[in-house]
Design goal:
Elements: E1 2-3, H1 26-43, E2 47-52, E3 63-71, E4 81-85, H2 100-109, E5 112-116, H3 132-135, H4 140-157, E6 165-170, H5 172-183, E7 188-194, E8 201-203, H6 205-219, H7 221-237, H8 241-251, H9 261-280, H10 296-303, H11 311-323, E9 328-329, H12 333-341, H13 349-362, E10 363-365, H14 379-389, H15 395-409, E11 421-426, H16 454-457, E12 461-463, E13 466-470, E14 482-487, H17 505-521
Parallel strand pairs: 1-9, 4-5, 4-6, 6-7, 7-11, 8-10, 11-14
Antiparallel strand pairs: 2-3, 3-5, 12-13
Helix pairs in contact: 2-17, 4-5, 6-7, 7-11, 12-14, 13-14, 13-15
């Protein structure tokens, strides 16, 4: 049997960790426990809304059904609406337990809650397959039109009582939320976006550079050096046929003779990705019960454990844990891409459709790198895109897609335009490099503050560029404009997770600050 590690070298998938109530702090348990106990079955009922297949062709009258979930457990007449924006994964059954920040907002302000699944993900299937002919209806622009129509339709359905829509999103859905505020300011009242990748970029070299810096800072020089040495040993073995055969045995590869050209790039990408994912979520709320989820500290313990063997065998141990399978790993480019070339709806669909969005819109290809990572040629992701979606998708489309996306939404400059928007980024998260990570909100890092102490939560910058000069009469630089919170030791979209005992004071206070911002928007 063969196994395919879903490395998706441009992986951005963010799934809110459904931390069990026993793991989370008691302060957040009250919100989750009561909510789940009273409304879990009701809120998990499937709801559907009819959407246009192509919002940009008035003559195309084809329709499809988009899935959403709804809860009015704490809704009070005239209250706001929280719309949890779906992204590159299905709506989970534990969605009500997914975010303390969202749940506190819903309860504090008597909000109606919706969760809208993204077209082409989960059960929201607009077409009968994922052929390129049908994937042309998959884009962030079409998804934004889905959001706009959903808000308009739900508002009309509730006789106009649903007026102030606050959108929440983490990662790509966070970017969608910001772009929705940009496109539909008359529909979207406010946005809370965690780690939104606002700038499309063809070759995202800064990603691995950030991973490298984080690994050195938090893993230590010994761990960093061990990984570098392991990859040097891999590169040395790659030079000969005998060496490739040794690599096959060490890493349980299906065929050593395939380690040439694109297959070699594939092998390097697989290895890099296993390390990247550990680092990206290294300080996040990881579900430790799942064996393939290991922390940065655990990974470094393995990489520096001499009893395992030389560095290459320690790297193999990390890959083995992350792979969590006894089957051999395929590195044959043709076999590997066959998985994502499958156009039938199935378990591979989310990988295929997200790759299509990356190839046609965003880029974010994590390619060239320095030690301790292997070098991946810039030609590799383009070759992969054409292999999966050509000849309909051409090289020019791949190369020009990110520039067109930035033209549509403004890249990081969207911060100069949108209002009633707050974004959060963490310094441990490599994706902050394509987000807006310049903080204009200062969070208390020494004292854990409750929501009732909001006047002490924040000392704003008098000027976003002059952090040492504070104004005493305001909480934020501009609470009704664009606010940005940056926590250096936080992971990808971590602010949306529930409070944990090990969370930093700065992270916890960031959640409280966001609640305060939402209250100001709502005039509370």
């Amino acid at each position: 049997m063969k196994t395919k590690i879903i490395f998706v070298f441009l992986s951005i998938v963010f799934k809110l960790t459904s931390v069990s109530l026993s793991q989370a702090d008691d302060s957040s348990n009250r919100y989750h426990a009561e909510y789940l106990k009273s409304k879990e079955i009701e809120a998990n009922a499937e709801n559907w809304i009819q959407q246009r297949l192509n919002h940009f062709d008035a003559l195309d009258r084809r329709r499809w059904l988009q899935k959403y979930k709804k809860s009015d457990a704490f809704y009070k007449h005239g209250g706001p609406v929280v719309l949890y924006v779906g992204g590159e994964s299905r709506i989970g059954k534990l969605w009500l337990n997914s975010s303390q920040l969202i749940m506190k907002t819903v309860r504090e302000y008597g909000a109606m809650l919706f969760y809208l699944e993204h077209r082409y993900y989960g059960e929201s299937k607009p077409t009968n397959d994922t052929s390129v002919r049908n994937l042309r209806f998959l884009s962030s622009q079409q998804a934004l039109e889905d959001l706009g129509y959903f808000i308009q339709n739900m508002t009309e359905k509730h006789d106009g009582h649903l007026k102030k829509w606050i959108l929440f999103g983490g990662s790509y859905p966070g970017a969608l939320a910001v772009w929705a505020r940009l496109k539909f300011p008359h529909l979207v009242y406010g946005v809370v976006a965690a780690s939104p990748p606002l700038e499309a970029k063809l070759f995202f070299n800064e990603y691995l550079e950030s991973v490298n810096d984080t690994l050195y800072k938090y893993g230590g020089s010994t761990c960093h050096s061990a990984l570098g040495e392991a990859n040097r040993q891999v590169a040395s073995l790659m030079e000969t046929g005998e060496g490739k055969e040794k690599l096959r045995k060490i890493f349980n590869l299906c065929n050593a003779s395939d380690l040439n050209g694109n297959s070699m790039g594939l092998f390097y990408s697989i290895m890099n990705n296993q390390i990247e994912n550990v680092v990206q979520y290294s300080r996040g709320n990881i579900i430790v019960e799942k064996p393939m989820y290991i922390t940065l500290n655990k990974m470094c313990d393995i990489l520096t454990n001499k009893s395992i063997g030389t560095e290459i065998y320690r790297l193999q141990k990390v890959i083995d844990i992350r792979n969590n399978s006894t089957e051999c790993i395929t590195t044959t480019f043709t076999e590997y891409t066959a998985y994502d070339r499958n156009t039938s709806w199935g378990e591979q669909s989310s990988s295929r459709v997200w790759l299509y969005q990356a190839c046609s819109e965003f880029g974010w290809f994590q390619t060239v790198s320095r030690q301790p990572f292997q070098h991946v040629q810039e030609s590799f992701p383009t070759t992969l895109c054409l292999r999966l979606f050509g000849p309909e998708l051409e090289e020019e489309d791949v190369l020009n897609g990110p520039a067109q996306t930035n033209l549509n939404y403004g890249g990081k400059k969207v911060a100069d335009v949108v209002t009633h928007t707050v974004i959060f980024n963490g310094g441990v998260d490599p994706w902050h490099k394509v987000s807006y990570s310049k903080s204009n909100v200062r969070i208390d890092t020494e004292k854990l503050l409750s929501y009732d102490e909001e006047k002490k939560i924040i000392s704003p910058f008098s000027n976003p560029d002059e952090s040492n000069q504070l104004r005493k009469d305001e909480y934020f630089y501009n609470p009704f404009g664009f606010s940005s919170i940056f926590v250096a030791e936080s992971s990808h979209a971590e602010v949306l997770s529930s409070d944990m005992q090990r969370d930093s004071i700065e992270l916890r206070n960031s959640r409280t600050a966001i609640l305060r911002l939402v209250s100001l928007w709502l005039g509370k």
